[in-house]
Each structure stands twice: as C-alpha cells, then as structure tokens.
Amino acid sequence: MYISGVKSGVKVSRLGLAVPANVLALGTVSLVTDVSSEMVTAVLPFYLVLSLGLSPLAFGLVDGLYFGVTAVLRLAGAHLADRLQRRKLVAGLGYALSAACRLALPAAGGSAALIGAVVAADRTGKGLRTAPRDALISLSADPGRLGQAFGVHRAMDTAGAFLGPLVAFAVLGASGAYDAVFAVSFAVALLGVLIFVLYVRDRREAAPPPATIRPAWALLGDARFRRLCLAACGLGLVTVSDAFVYLLLQRNTGLATEHLPLLPLGTAAVYVLLAVPLGRLADRVGRGTVFVLGHLALVAVYGALAASGPYWLVLPLLGLFYAATDGVIMAAAGPLLPAGSRTSGLALLQTGQALARMLSSILYGAAWAAFGHVPGLVAMGVGVMACLSLWKVVR
C-alpha cells in the first residue's frame, strides 16, 4: 500500500524528505510529554532557590538527581527491553511512572528531601524510556538518514519544551499556585501515555537477544564506541546544567520572578528551528563536525555569563548547542552497535552522560558556593576545549 507515493508507514514532509511514521509518533509523544515535564522544570529551580532558599550547593545536589540517580536502572531497563524484544513496553512503563510523579509533587510540600525523592522517581521514568525510545527511532529509519530522523524527533520533543514553560506561565499567572501547575502537568502527561499506547509500534530484530547484561559492557571493547562514550562522558562532566544557566541569567539581569518560567523558551525556539537542519547537515558533512560546533556554542555561553554579557546571546547559543549535539550523538552511536544489543548500547552511552552531568551539577554548585560563579564557568569552558580533542570519534 502506498500513501502519497511512498510505502505505508512513511510520511513525506513538504520538503520531500521521508520520515518514518514511527518516528513521527514517538516525536508526538515526546512533544506532549515535554509540555508536561517542562511545566515543572520551568518553575522548580526558582521555587527551590528563591522560595525555599536552597544554597547553590544544595541545589546542585538536587539538580544532580535529574541526571545520575537512574544510572543502574537505566541499564537494567535497556537490557530487559533487548532481552524481551519489548522496547515499547519498557518505554511505556517509563512514561507512566513520570506521569504519576506529577501528582506526587504537591504532596511533597516544602520539603526539599521529599521533592528530591519525587525528582528521583521522575528521572527513573525518564531513564527507563529514553534508550528504548531512541532504539525504536534507530530501528525505524534508514541508517543513512539517522541524523535527520533524530533531528525530526528532537525538534518535536523541543517544541514541547517550548510550549511547557508557556503553559506553566499561564497557569501560574491565573492561579498563583504551584500545585495548579503540577495538576495540569499530570493531565498532559496522561495524554502522552495514551498517544504512546495507541500509535507507537514496536520494532524487533532478527538477531538473538542477549541472555545476560554482560553484552552491554562488552560493547566497550569496540574502540570506536568506547572512544565515543569517553568523549560524551568527558564533555558531560564540563557541561553546566540549564538550571544553573537560567539562575545565573536571573541573578545577573534581575529578571522579575514571574517571568522566570519563560527563560527556557529562547533555548527551545532555537533548538526547534535548528534540530532538523543540523541533523541533515551531520548526515552530509560528518557528525563530528556538527558535534564540535555545538560545543563551541556552549563555550560561548560560558563566556557571556562570565563576562557579564551579551546576555541576549545566551539562550540562542544554548539552543544551538543542543540542536548540534543531542540527536547527533545518538545518530553516531546507532550504527556502531550490533543487532540485539542496540538499546543496551545506547543506554550505556546515556548512563555515562547522566553520571557525568550529575557530577557536573554537584561540582559546579560547590565551585559557585566556594569561589563564585565566574571561576567555575572558566574551569568548565577550559574543560570543554580540552575534551574536544576527542571529537573525531563522533561520526
């Protein structure tokens, strides 16, 4: 059966580029889910720091939970998805768990410890779903167009990240209550779960699945994949989290509190615009080149924050960083992984990144508390430049 001149299951955009239907379905789920999650993400840093009065170090510890707390479970979930060849099931459990956490946030009240526990549970859901979702994308698209496929998905995902703060801003402005933001976020998350169940299709491979979790670790025996993981982890360790970037912008500009949820919009808008073009560019000229471009943009973000301007460049440059790196590194990793262990391999890469980002948040929070924000930014920028010596492994 053909639709608009192409095989059923593939949709063609106005640009004439074939985009697999499963990629579009997963992108839609990510769009809706990110509306929900970014509603919370947009208000949580300022709630913790400005309302509860957490120190930069304490906030760094909570922020670190966003990245590293699910490392072991992420690998176990990915192995289970490969072992059962049920990637949709494992990813669906992750989406459902994160949705449930939206209701748990109001119950946490003003306790930073309870909020941290809810954040950990939410990130557990994200850890469960991310690798199976990316494996489904890589299995649904032609290997020569993986950059484009991941670019389309990340653009849709980031469209949700753009809308989430807007919805949070509207709800918070209308109600004046954080609980209302959490309640609406839960309803949107449930919609995402429903779309996932109805429209996403599983993908299975002919190769026999791994019997134990060891094959995931054995993937590091491949020199190309090992160097890719080392590069990703090293760069993750010197990447300041978005939450700190937004806090520094608010601190340096004196932006009114009610406008703080809108800060991620600048980042998301640029990400949406550039994710697909940069994904296609990575397929054509090399994923390493685009990957390096993104990290040079990150260094420029640090420079603007450390030098007290120009602040108007910070959010667009941060969006460029994500558009040039997030999907690109997954597209680079996919072809290096053997059949039957693709989910586990992507989870291994993502786990390394997550642990590195967790340490980064803690280290930068400690550096800010001890020495001030500028020395920490300088150290991170130098670290990025040093790590880019490994850029050639990203292809």
From TrEMBL:
Keywords: Membrane, Transmembrane, Transmembrane helix. GO terms for molecular function: transmembrane transporter activity. The chain crosses the membrane at residues 12-32, 44-77, 155-174, 180-200, 228-249, 261-278, 285-305, 377-394. GO terms for cellular component: plasma membrane. It is found in: Cell membrane. It comes from the Bacteria. Residues 22-395 form the Major facilitator superfamily (MFS) profile domain. InterPro entries: MFS, MFS_dom, MFS_trans_sf. The keyword Transmembrane helix applies. It is a multi-pass membrane protein. CDD domains: MFS_MJ1317_like. Its main location: membrane. PANTHER family: C-METHYLTRANSFERASE (PTHR23518), MAJOR FACILITATOR SUPERFAMILY TRANSPORTER (PTHR23518:SF2). This is MFS family permease.
